[in-house]
Amino acid sequence: MAIEQTVGRTPPRAMTIAGTDSGGGAGIAADLRAFTACGVHGCLAVCAVTVQNSIGVTGVHKIPPETVAAQILTVAGDIGLDAAKTGMLASAEIIEAVARACDQAGIGAAHRTPLVIDPVAASMHGDQLLADSALDAFRGLLFPRATVITPNLDEVRLLIGLDVHDRAAQYEAAKLLYELGPRYVLVKGGHLREDADVCVDLLYDGHTFTELPGPRFETGNTHGGGDSMASAITAGLAHGMAVPDAVAFGKRYIVEAVRHSYPLGAGHGPVSALWRIKDEPG
Ligand code: PXL
Known about the structure:
This protein is α/β, with parallel strands linked by helices. It has one domain (13-275): UDP-N-acetylmuramoyl-L-alanine:D-glutamate ligase (3-Layer(aba) Sandwich), CATH 3.40.1190.20. Helices cover 34% and strands 19% of the residues. It contains eight helices and nine strands. It has helices at residues 27-37, 65-76, 92-105, 135-142, 153-160, 167-178, 225-238, 243-259; strands spanning 13-21, 41-52, 57-62, 83-86, 115-117, 148-149, 184-187, 198-204, 209-215. A nine-stranded mixed beta sheet has the order 3-2-1-4-5-6-7-8-9, sandwiched between helices. The model has no long low-confidence stretch (mean pLDDT 94). Bound molecules: 3-hydroxy-5-(hydroxymethyl)-2-methylisonicotinaldehyde. The site of 3-hydroxy-5-(hydroxymethyl)-2-methylisonicotinaldehyde has 16 residues, from β1, β2 and α7.
């Protein structure tokens, strides 16, 4: 997909409903970079502010649920949205507010605006980004509203208690998650160690499984990788792509974003959106 902007014409509009990372690697910063790189105007509903650098998270401030809902409704009522995604939602109360606001704003699989749910539960350092008590709300309130959910294998274990160590279990996880109500399930295989130099993500729509293989890179600089992939998928949907095409687009995006990832600080560096922005500066 070429990045094009016709002068004076509004690009597709997408919203990230997520948390901030003061280090700029993950969360809303990664989402907005991916939206921009993929030719989409990004809107945001902040759910939590994290105090964070490349080493870890040292503080979390949750935004009041009614403020989260108000951000969604005020944007949808004026700017309009062609797709939306969720990232760090932090608490059951915020999840409840997001589910209600999405219904009111026409966001979700049953409505006009597709919704990507990235069930963020922890940072790559293991810092908790979601209250334990919020898992039920995630499964019960958000999955049935999702156009596509994008869990990694750690999130699969948390959500359905299944330890995925091989491809057969990855298929089983996709089937079990599909039962919770999303239209599509993408079980990401990045943490599957049986694949030495490939990383196979698995898409399931209740009938057909599609394996999406990509190269595996030996790098610790994958901070914000899940957020970036889900945002690229969301951007694809905002452009009007069908879900399987948007997911394939997101996979191509994240392969290059990881290939171009860079060191930052003393800990884990971020994946890069810059690879899609090819013009010379200045
Ligand atoms: O990558 C998951 C994620 C999402 N959102 C925020 C984060 C992180 C990981 O650290 O900090 C705000």
